[in-house]
Hints:
Layout: E1 4-7, H1 12-16, E2 23-26, E3 30-36, H2 51-68, E4 76-83, H3 89-99, E5 107-112, E6 123-130
Parallel strand pairs: 4-5
Antiparallel strand pairs: 1-2, 3-6, 4-6
Amino acid sequence: xxxxxxxxxxxxxxxxxxFSPAVIxxxxxxxxxxGQTATVDENGKDISGDFEGQARTIFTLIDKTLHRAGGSLxxxxxxxxxxxxxxxxDGFVKIRNEFFKDGKYPASxxxxxxxxxxxxxxxxxxxxxxx
Length: 131
């Protein structure tokens, strides 16, 4: 059974922050994504300490994982984003908006935490997709 995904219309604030207040799904299969981090980009370049590079690489890696499961980022219905510095929040929202150009954003939480598992990591994204 193919998934049907409905994104509830967000407020102006929610749209400006690139997230949906809720996403409703019917059918399909649920894909629980492990937390994704990156300190090296797809070309092997060290991106430790590079927030934008890590964010873009993480979204690309999540998309590749979802393709392996039969979907894409468009199937991501919720995400939990962990950052280590609240000053990165606005930059993250801008980058997320680049990956969801159609305005159909996943539901999301954005949390600031003190530490990650390895030095150089600045963010981690965990999510759930329905395909």
